[in-house]
Design a protein that fits this description.
single chain, six-stranded mixed β-sheet, about 325 residues, 14 strands
Length: about 325
């Protein structure tokens, strides 16, 4: 077989594999979209009983709705988020007849949809979790030309975290700062809380806290040390606004009061319980901790935390100069 033929075969196989992967991804996303839409329809039917279960796809040409209902439509895809996962925009449009309340009823239903979906964790029939975030309304109230009903389009972002296997792989290589921060959080909140690192995992639970690294810097601290600074973002997610705010405040306050977070022992290969001996434990110092209660809990996170630690600079292996002799005389 000639080299040219081998190269052609290799290229063809590569293209075939890439095409197969693209097809598999497309099929996977189609199934995911179907599950999301089905779950949302069930949720909307429960939120607004007046629709009597009439939560529909976009009507076919010539098809006209005769009673109060809602329509779900997928809009554009959004670039994937490193910590929030796959993102897709959906539009939910409530429809109401003028004699049933018109624009005022649309306003009431819109408020119910926002309250019932914004930052709410939903789970599909296969156990996959996703979150909806309200993004606003793109247009004003309008009269549908076909049915004569009044409607409004509400935009929501649907966020689907990474599959569990990828999350576990990421957890295996997480740095000791993150591990220490997670241990500290569990100690503060208890085992009823789920504490995640780096990104939301598939099937995530609530109440939960996610810590992720947002910045890293170093600075010289004297002749033999470096100061390492890491900026973290904390996401506090629950199904109750009061509990979310209370927990966020508690974590920020305790970070400020304790000022240091214990890490694993220096040079020790033992497990997490080894970080108890005060004389051998290295600490990360809390430099600053703040909270924004208005921030989006799932996507942006409420807590901004800066941790610092001093580490020894590596010592040069070059031979040391011990003595210098100088003789002014010339022989």
């Amino acid at each position: 077989m000639s080299m040219r033929h081998e190269m052609h075969t290799e290229t063809s196989n590569k293209m075939s594999n890439e095409q197969s992967q693209e097809i598999n991804n497309a099929v996977s996303e189609t199934r995911l979209s179907t599950r999301i839409k089905k779950t949302l329809k069930q949720k909307l039917a429960a939120l607004v009983p007046a629709w009597e279960g009439r939560v529909q796809d976009i009507p076919a040409l010539g098809e006209v709705s005769s009673g109060p209902c809602a329509v779900i439509a997928f809009a554009e895809e959004v670039p994937k988020s490193a910590w929030a996962g796959y993102r897709r925009i959906i539009k939910i449009s409530p429809y109401v007849r003028s004699e049933d309340g018109g624009a005022e009823q649309v306003e009431v239903w819109s408020a119910m949809l926002i309250a019932g979906l914004h930052q709410v964790r939903l789970e599909d029939e296969e156990g996959g979790a996703f979150t909806c975030l309200y993004l606003g309304s793109t247009d004003s109230d309008r009269v549908d030309s076909g049915s004569g009903m009044i409607t409004r389009s509400l935009r929501f972002g649907v966020y689907v975290p990474e599959p569990p296997q990828r999350a576990s792989e990421n957890a295996a290589v997480s740095d000791p700062w993150l591990a220490a921060l997670q241990r500290w959080t569990v100690t503060e909140l208890g085992t009823d809380w789920s504490v995640y690192g780096d990104s939301w995992p598939g099937g995530y639970k609530m109440p939960s806290v996610l810590w992720r690294l947002s910045g890293y810097s170093t600075a010289v601290a004297g002749t033999s040390a470096l100061e390492v600074r890491k900026q973290w973002i904390g996401h506090v997610l629950t199904d109750d606004t009061s509990l979310t705010n209370q927990t966020t405040s508690h974590l920020v306050q305790q970070l400020a009061l304790q000022s240091r977070i214990p890490m694993t022992q220096v040079g020790s290969e033992s497990n997490e319980a080894s970080a108890i001996d005060e004389s051998h434990t290295r600490y990360a110092t809390v430099d600053e901790a703040t909270a924004d209660m208005q921030a989006d809990a799932y996507l942006n996170g409420q807590i901004r935390l800066t941790l610092t630690q001093r580490i020894r600079r590596p010592v040069s292996n070059a031979p040391l100069m011990r003595e210098i002799h100088h003789n002014k005389g010339i022989q």
